[in-house]
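Possible regression after last week's pipeline update?

I re-ran a chain I had predicted before the update to compare outputs. Posting the input and the new output here so someone can diff against the archived version. Not blocking, just want to make sure nothing changed silently.
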Amino acid sequence: MQLLMEVKVTNEASDRLSIALRVKAALHLLRASSPSVPVSVSAVCRSADVSRANLYANYPGLVAEIRQTKATDLPGERAEGNLQARLSDSIAARKVLQSKYDSLVMVCLELQAEIRKLRAANDSKVKARRKSI
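New output (post-update):
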């Protein structure tokens, strides 16, 4: 939910999410989709549609966050000897699901903004055609 509060539109004309939010969403999606595979900066950049050069130059904190991501950050197959370990696994799994949910909501918001933009462009074309008739 905290990520949802950070949603900022960088340009009202395009209604695109900021680069930082797209990178965070991509990181969360990649973490959740392949917990046993390490996440690379290149994979996050491809998923977020951001150039690596831009990320390295302007977002060193995000690069550090991506590099610190390890396969062990997500709940895996480890021995569950007691109730405390099972509780920790459940909490970690809930966090993963919450981050995946937050990422999907951000993607939906971006797609809704794109739909609004396309509708506005279509409406202006229809009005122009009506005026010319």
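Follow-up from reviewer: compared with the archived run. DSSP finds six helices and no strands in the chain. Marking as no regression found.
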